[in-house]
Amino acid sequence: MSLSQPFNPFIVQILTTVRPCPTQLNETICLKGEIRCPGVPDKSGCPVPAVCVPFNKTSKTGEPCAPQCPVTCPEGQYVCSGYQDRFGCPLPDTCTPKYVLGQNGSKCPGVCPVVCHEEDMFLCKGIVNKNGCFTNDMCLPKYITGLKGTICKLHCPISCPNGMMNCPGSPGPDGCPKRDECVPFSNTMENGLKCPAYCPITCPEETILCTGKIKPDGCPSSDFCIFKFNSGKNGMTCPGICPQECSDDSISCPDIQDEDGCKIPTCIPKQIPGINGSICSGQCPVNCPPDRMFCPGEWGTDGCLTKATCIPWKIQTEDGTTCPTHCPIVCPEGKKACPRYVGPGKCPEVDLCIPSTKVGINGTFCKNECPIYCKEDEVLCRGQAFINGCPEPDICIPQYTIGKNGNTCKSQCPLSCDRGMIKCDNVLGPDECLYDLCVPAVTKGKDGTMSCPGHCPVGCPSNMMTCAGIRMSNGCVGPESCVPKLIPRFNGTECPGYCQVYCPKGMKLCEGSFSPDGCQGPSTCIPESMPGIRRGICPSVCPVVCPDSLQVCPPPTNLEEDCPLPGYCDINCS
Hints:
Helix content is about 0%, strand content about 30%. The chain is mainly β and about 575 residues long.
């Protein structure tokens, strides 16, 4: 530091702290089979002693290879391992930057150089990827075997600019792949529509090129290849035909076949005339395989023919019988097809035609249902009539059902009651089976007019008895009820049960008397009044009902009273 420069204490501190490099280094002596490589300066930049590195490589011819010392790269670079020369000896390592600037200014990783020394290999430079960076160079075989066994020259990959896509080279007539090419991602059509582009297609020798179709969006699809020949019926050879491009008012039928089974792509109109002036959709013809039978379509209610179908030549019935099949019958206008019943174990016959409509009960035109055929363990139930006079469809029900107590009951078809009747569901019958019944909705009242509501039978089980409904004050009879046939007593015995007694007007209810076995009898009705002993009218007196431990005692004689007195209960009547 000169005296003319201003004093800087920071520089003085650095100069006083830097370690000086050694003035003399120890001499490095290497053994046989080693090479002497200069030492790499340390972090302070001072030289270090040389190092000895083992080296005993030989070339393909057995000659010793030139020694190569390790390479130490400066900061910001990394070592690229050396390749071998054409004699098999290693080449010196090199240094390459860790990062370089890409084509679009992006930061790209550095790429080590590649050396191809094999006589049958050649060097392909790296291509620019989508990030604008170069990929590694590569060594490729100079020649490959083509599709036809020919020896083909290989081409390096290419790098396409923005807006272009890489299309691999397709095989040429000699079977060798062509050079890759770049094509635009999109093309502008004559009408100004911008459509996606496709790579060119080269078809193999045994195929033909078909032009892509125009899609609904107005853009063409990719071209494709089809076989020049394919198989038809009975071993026939059919020419390959590209699909036909149809107009907007037509549809494509690609599977139409001629008599030899060869496909003939055809266009048919989208709309065709039907019957009665209707307009129908066009349909491609149906070609059935050998194991299927062709069945023509049927005329629908819209005047159009339905699509033809293919059905098996034979079917199997439920019992395993093999039967020939029949196409669905085409009935004339105003009629419909219905299956024909032939019985179990027999093959079905051709369907029959029945009128589509029939006249109902009140003269209305009703839909005519196909007849149904029930199995041996089923019962046919005729459809009941609707309010409009048209019947419901017939149905099949099991011949027998299980009753309330597990007994077998004969099935009953669904019941429909006439006007003025009410339906009673699941009424228990004497045989413990459930039945549906129809009863009048109204019955005669006290004045003889139809003014009382009807009631469904109660249907009592076997251990119960049916009791008639009581007659109410308005003269109408109420619903029936069930009471036990036997009533258990405290001592284990049973007494007969009785229906409750309701006495009419002018009558008086009297409880039943007890029998010698201790069971009470049924209640009875007696007149509310009776003539007196000498004159006048007296209230009636019910018989006295006493328990088992007491006696029924006659009433006392009282000549002063005109009306009889009731009896009484006592241990001893004396």
